[in-house]
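Below is a filled-in request sheet from our internal design queue. Each sheet records the structural input a requester submitted and the sequence that came back. We keep these sheets so that new team members can see what a complete request looks like end to end.

REQUESTER: design group, bay 2
PRIORITY: normal
MODE: inverse folding
CHAIN LENGTH: 675
BACKBONE (tokenized):
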């Protein structure tokens, strides 16, 4: 029987999924996508699918892939989604389909404990304090029991902890096969298991890391596969350019200086003046950072000529040259003792790399790339391609002139592009030859959701705008007893809105907690927010930016109001955004129409997608930007949103809000209250 027929049988109303999957309902869109994936697998082709929220795309790509009997690679955007696929979705389907498949999950080095570096963490004086030492003791105890070595196993471990870089490895500091702990290494164990897997779950970062490693001529990280499936594929372009470009950070240099000192004193004490060499690298790194000491944190300095804009030319050039000189001195010293310990080989490679990059950033940038300087607590020098098109074309279509790939490639997400042909996704990904499919959401948005755009507010650029958003949210959240997610387009606006809300609810004494991105890890914020609608828990308002526009899945009564402060236009002064706009202009295309507007439509759709997550959800989306109604491009952005009914006045909004407050559940029988 052909694969499409097998998939169709599985998704039929009386098929195997209906018999063994709790709550399964046959959906036309889900079956349509599953058949398209089945055909792509049989043909060995490229398929791009935009599957609206609620389609059930995970089953749509997993079922035919599992039934195919081929080696499958599934990549998703985050480690949390990896865990969901590997821990919940895959085991259930493998059991339901009664397939003897071996499934494994593989993450990047930073997710696994390094047995070689763990004992050294206690000697990182000045890096960790008393509180961290207590956490380190927990890690050491856990290390004696863990089988997988995944840091995420440790209860209550903060993913932002300064300890994690000290007890995990990177490609730069890993000793490889020369490491005394090589046989017991958790990373190598995970990779060995991955080689035996029929289905391997990875993330986009690891996929592009593997691509970068292969381009450098080193051994591949990932095993061979027949089918590659990328979920949350809309993030791939931005993830990929991080790995396919070049970067040099002062933080990397400081890490190198610490490792240089520690290894030199441990394995070759007295053979060189290791403190002086390490200090030389450290001083060079700090002096490079000082060149930009007057630049506000969070800035991205454009870098078109020999020096980033706004920096003094002689000082910058001298500081960059000093980095090269310090690294070269360390490299020469290390080469004289490299036979003493395996640590020195890796240190030499690291020194060679940052010396080479210091030289590279002193020269002219490569064609079709953009260069900029990230200014945070450290400096990060970046040179990046404008997209991953060339790299993906070479991978997906390895033979020149070949229109059909040798493997099957499936790219899917709820939101990929603003145009029907999905060119906004396929062009920067180099997939113009791919088959394209759009599957609409099964949700009844006209019944389940409403859209409100307030009128008469300060313009989005007015400093008073964020305060107006905060006042609006305070009033609405009081009516709803929390249940509100605020999405801002900048960290500044996020802080302003969050602070005003906290002051407001403290002053009124209302039992509503204001959760702001950065206070706790994202996972903890979402947990606390989700509990806010439960009996015995305090109501919550969650204020977030950037990463909270997507990947937030809070179904049911816990979230019934999503407020977006401004239209999420790409920042025009961002060096990468500007370079992409200039490229379009050079080819005769209008950057606003072909880049800024489509990107905004996709981002707006992603933010709006946080509201309705299940067929029983109800809620209101508020976009606090009058340009959505007053500007000519507003209609295009409105068309990108789900077909929610419109609330034309403040009175209409208040009426809909009051209706939401009358229901403590999201039962569909209550939807009439929102009409």
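RETURNED SEQUENCE:
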């Amino acid at each position: 029987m052909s694969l499409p027929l097998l998939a169709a049988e599985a998704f039929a109303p009386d098929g195997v999924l209906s018999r063994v999957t709790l709550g399964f309902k046959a959906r036309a869109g889900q079956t349509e996508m599953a058949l398209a994936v089945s055909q792509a697998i049989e043909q060995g082709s490229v398929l791009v699918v935009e599957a609206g929220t609620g389609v059930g795309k995970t089953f749509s790509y997993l079922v035919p892939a599992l039934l195919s009997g081929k080696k499958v690679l599934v990549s998703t955007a985050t480690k949390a989604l990896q865990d969901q696929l590997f821990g919940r979705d895959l085991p259930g389907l493998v059991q339901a389909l009664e397939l003897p498949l071996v499934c494994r999950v593989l993450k990047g080095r930073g997710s696994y404990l390094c047995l070689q570096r763990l004992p050294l963490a206690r000697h990182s004086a000045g890096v960790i304090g008393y509180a961290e030492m207590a956490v380190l003791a927990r890690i050491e105890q856990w290390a004696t029991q863990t089988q997988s070595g995944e840091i995420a196993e440790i209860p209550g471990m903060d993913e932002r902890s300064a300890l994690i870089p000290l007890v995990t490895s990177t490609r730069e500091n890993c000793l490889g096969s020369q490491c005394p702990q090589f046989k017991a290494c958790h990373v190598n164990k995970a990779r060995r298991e991955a080689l035996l897997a029929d289905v391997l779950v990875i993330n986009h970062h690891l996929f592009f890391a593997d691509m970068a490693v292969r381009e450098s001529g080193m051994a591949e990280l990932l095993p061979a596969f027949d089918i590659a499936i990328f979920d949350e594929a809309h993030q791939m372009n931005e993830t990929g350019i991080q790995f396919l470009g070049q970067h040099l950070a002062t933080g990397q240099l400081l890490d190198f200086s610490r490792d240089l000192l520690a290894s030199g004193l441990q394995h070759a004490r007295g053979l060189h003046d290791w403190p002086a060499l390490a200090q030389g690298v450290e001083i060079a790194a700090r002096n490079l950072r000082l060149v930009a000491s007057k630049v506000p944190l969070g800035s991205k300095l454009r870098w078109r000529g020999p020096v980033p804009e706004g920096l003094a030319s002689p000082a910058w050039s001298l500081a960059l040259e000093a980095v090269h000189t310090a690294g070269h001195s360390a490299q020469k010293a290390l080469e004289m003792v490299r036979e003493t310990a395996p640590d020195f080989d890796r240190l030499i490679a690291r020194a060679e790399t940052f010396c080479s990059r210091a030289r590279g950033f002193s020269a002219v940038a490569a064609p079709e790339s953009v260069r900029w300087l990230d200014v945070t607590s450290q400096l990060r020098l970046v040179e990046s391609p404008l997209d991953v098109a060339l790299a993906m074309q070479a991978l997906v279509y390895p033979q020149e002139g070949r229109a059909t790939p040798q493997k099957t490639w499936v790219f899917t997400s709820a939101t990929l592009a603003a145009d029907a042909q999905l060119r906004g996704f396929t062009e920067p990904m180099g997939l113009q030859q791919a088959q394209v499919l759009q599957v609409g959401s099964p949700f009844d948005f006209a019944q389940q959701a409403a859209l409100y755009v307030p009128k008469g507010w300060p313009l989005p650029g007015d400093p008073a705008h964020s305060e107006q958003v905060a006042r609006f949210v305070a009033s609405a959240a009081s009516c709803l007893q929390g249940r509100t997610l605020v999405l801002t387009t900048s960290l500044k606006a996020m802080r302003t809105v969050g602070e005003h809300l906290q002051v407001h609810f403290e002053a009124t004494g209302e039992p509503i907690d204001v959760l702001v991105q950065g206070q706790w890890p994202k996972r903890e914020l979402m947990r606390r927010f989700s509990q806010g609608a439960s009996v015995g828990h305090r109501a919550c308002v969650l204020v977030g930016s950037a990463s909270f526009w997507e990947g937030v899945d809070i179904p049911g009564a816990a979230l019934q109001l999503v407020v977006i402060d401004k239209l999420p236009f790409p920042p025009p002064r961002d060096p990468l955004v500007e370079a992409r706009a200039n490229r379009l202009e050079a080819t005769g295309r209008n950057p606003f129409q072909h880049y800024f507007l489509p990107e905004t439509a996709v981002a707006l759709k992603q933010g709006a997608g946080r509201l309705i997550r299940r067929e029983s959800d109800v809620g209101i989306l508020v976009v606090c930007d009058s340009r959505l109604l007053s500007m000519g491009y507003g209609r295009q952005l409105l068309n990108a949103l789900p077909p929610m009914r419109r609330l034309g006045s403040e009175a209409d909004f208040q009426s809909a809000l009051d209706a939401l407050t009358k229901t403590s559940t999201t039962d569909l029988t209550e939807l009439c209250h929102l009409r």
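SHEET NOTES:
- The longest helix spans residues 313-336.
- DSSP finds 26 helices and 18 strands in the chain.
FILED BY: M.R.
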